[in-house]
Request: fold
Amino acid sequence: MRYLPLTPSDRDAMLATIGVASIDELFVDVPEAARLSGPIAGLPDHASEIAVERHMTALARKNIAAGDGPFFLGCGAYRHHVPASVDHLIQRGEYLTAYTPYQPEIAQGTLQMLFEFQTQVARLLGTDVANASMYDGSTACWEAIGMARRITRRGKAILSSGLHPHYVSVARTMAKYTGDVLETGTPELVPDTDYHALAEAIDADTSCVVVQYPDILGRIGDLKPLAEACHAKKALLIVVVTEPVALGALKSPGEMDADIVVGEGQSLGVGLQFGGPYVGLFGCKEKYVRQMPGRLCGETVDADGRRGFVLTLSTREQHIRREKATSNICTNSGLCALAFSIHMTLLGEKGLRDLARVNHGAAAAAAERLQMVPGVTLVNTSFFNEFTLELSQEARPVVRQLAENGILAGVSLGRLYPGEGSLANGLVVAVTETTTAGDVDALAGALEEVLK
Amino acid sequence: MSRYFTEDHEWIDVDGDIGTVGISEYAQSQLGDIVFVDVPEDGKELTKGDEAAVVESVKAASDVYAPASGTVLEGNPALSDTPELVNEDPEGDGWFFKITLSDPSELEELMDESAYATFVSKL
Amino acid sequence: MTINQSGWRPTMTEKGGESAASTFTGNKALMLEEALIFEIGSTETTGVDFTGTPAESDAAMPAKAYLAGLEREAPIGLPGLSEPEAVRHYTRLSRQNYAIDLGLFPLGSCTMKHNPRLNEKMARLPGFADVHPLQPVDTVQGALEVIHQLAHWLVTLTGMHSVAMSPKAGAHGELCGILAIKAALAARGEDRRVILVPESAHGTNPATAAFAGFAVEDIPATADGRVDTAALKARLGPDVAGVMITNPNTCGLFERDLKEISDAVHAAGGYVYCDGANFNAIVGRVRPGDLGVDAMHINLHKTFSTPHGGGGPGSGPVVLSEALTPYAPLPFVEQRDGRFELVEEETAGEHHAASFGRMVAFHGQMGMFTRALTYILSHGADGLRQVAEDAVLNANYVLRSLEDVLDAPFGGAGPCMHEALFSDANLAEGFSTLDVAKGLIDEGYHPMTVYFPLVVHGAMLVEPTETESKAALDQFVGALRSVAERAKAGDPALKTAPHFAPRSRLDETQAARKPVLVWKDAEPALAAE
Reply:
């Protein structure tokens, strides 16, 4: 076995040092009935690199990759070009094979990177502080709702109908156990967000209002009046950003006085990966920092007065607080946070703004092109790089049919909201810097063909 | 004014029906460097034994219990910026909160200074 | 002629010069200081060009912008670096980290084993890495098959009934198991409120149970480091929802009575959650299903070698007994007529009506599944069994090689499993486990897990893993012996260790009292008068 260094003679020598005759004697505490006498039947034995590579490659080939043809999916995961140096750097063993930086003297690389990441995220989201990352956007969203409950000591969260339905599902699952009451709704194929109605619904029991920006249909709304409405009733405004590139073009939620801003960071550095691992972004106002979940890195000095970084405020966390912790979260998404941070550093403010401009420009051109197709209506009057089309027929079969022709046309709302007849004709289309005008033409042509 | 101690190492000074609560010199020495103190809000009703405040060192968080029942008058505002007061002067400037006692007879169950000193010496 | 037949080796010819006390840069040869990106970058610099990108022809803002009048105008403050600067920045930072690739990483309970690079290569195949989670299922049959194959291995290796693949990490998996237990109780119309957790448990156990609304009650440990079975049984009753037991436990010992405990818990109407953090010690030799376990998470980043990445991402699939299977979360993969289906909210009613719901957007940590499956296929059933055997052998070798110098509180009771536990009992007055840990840093090692489990004073938990050679273990044993002897002799230099690391001991008190969590640019200098 290529990953096991011990030789048979090593094993014999070590058994002798230990003072036992066989390896079985080290497993004496296992009750006899539970001891397996040999390898588990029905499973193959070890295999060479070549054999494993062949097996995995064959499986990979059964998928259509986003890069194989025109591709327009978004809805919480976006295809962006990741510079080659990002993947090279995150594969350095000192990052890839390091542990959580619990011994700061020999983990300054990870710690300084996390401090830089926290600052980048806070500046992007417009918040005072940000943590060292969460599992992903959906779990960060739920953690934010729990945090609002702890801060306001109220138990009702109002969720926008424009919040990603998977994020709503996660919150619904968790709320069953914590007793939080969630008010939710289904979006309508109209140009405006539901922010106005949300503002009306806030009452004295409301802990928070949760909105997505841009929302699941790609629409953008001004958060400022909603923040004011929340604060007038002493509720918090939580804003969810699933496409961080949008904040290269759009005012940050923090600038509009959101209290907690969470996001999915996958767009930068991470890649699609069929849904994970991703990286949850989590920022908030400074006054709420002690109610934050997850790891935090902070600046300090060492015994010789040199600047250094440590994990801090860890009394919030499970390994100290146990059943009183702010969350049971034990890890972050370290390597994905590193990928995000490197990509962001390569972009810098200039690059991020350029990237956002290219995305928005390409999306605007695509929206204008696609709405010329007979049977296609553009729902949005506002969007960043993702918008919703209403087709003249159910979108889901259309998506499947186009996939057979090698065009991944977008996310049908029937997939996200099964059984919601009013949304069945909706198709959410995302356009990024990786999308060519030719791709858009191919989609337009194929839609024209199917919708005839 | 008289001072009482609990077995959980809180002290309470009583002046009329107002009590001032903190943690003992022994408690701060066990906790090490205090980095954060969460004091109760004004007006909070506490029953004797309730978790009233939280005191944190770098690697530990400990609850501080109400030595007697009553209504919180105020938390020590100085602790939010200078939690190290608890290390420097635990039984003085490092007090946690003041409380209006609802049942001063509860104090009779607590230890006085010398009883507490004996209690600590046996730990 | 033969070169250097005598084996002569160069030595210093005369007494060396004084070493330089400090350098201009603060660097010490290959030990390089590195500033923050906020100090070296600028918002005008970028390492990414957009000229010639596919969408570049549209790069100008469109004639009509669709941004609802919310264009971001104020500066964001994100510094950029050109590619050479960025590569250098992150490379220099990386060299301040310890890593498995540099040496033995004996962090008990964390299973820091070698991360095979084939895993990385496979995870990066475009058919896995560049696939969107919401693509039509016909276009992702290979991805679903990976999940299905990995699930089959996990279920078979554990002797369980099914597996929930979506949890994002071990603690998330614990939550999954506890929620399944809660759902199963609800389906029975029972409202049991108490979860029993041994004192030695990981902190995530009580945190998870409390999150799900359970009251947590501690179960004491016996003098030999195991769960007090009698105390546990005595506490069972109609209010107990279940127990959370780690096996092998956090003292590195096998819970001999787990089957007996499971039977008692089941007889009392409860469920058994097993924390599978230490599955590496028994994979291929013991199936938790044979011990009556109802749910157990598997940290793919421990037993199945997916990288720890400096703190995640993890992955925590949860294997389930037949009793808990109906309550497993959405989504999951089903094979029907040779085709792989994704059971989500839409089809759950038909196939999985009792599910407690969704825990996460999308389908879990696919990138970790490909790595774990690659690792599993590389080892096969025979190799995985050898993994457990070598992990246990290595740990016992460390235990027996050091028990004369360090106190091993359970060493006399028999063998350990995958990790060796020591205490601070023998150290000189004023010397602690922390000093031993920091001393090990100077010897070129990452310290073992310290002060965990809580049931042993000054605990030092050493988990060498199976991917260490005997020579590597011998060197580590020598190093730890040396440090332990210094701690027993009261060597004052140990109190200020590490001396040779990029940083000496850091002031964690100051960091917590006045948290500085983000970089603040210096205030612009006041104009000279």
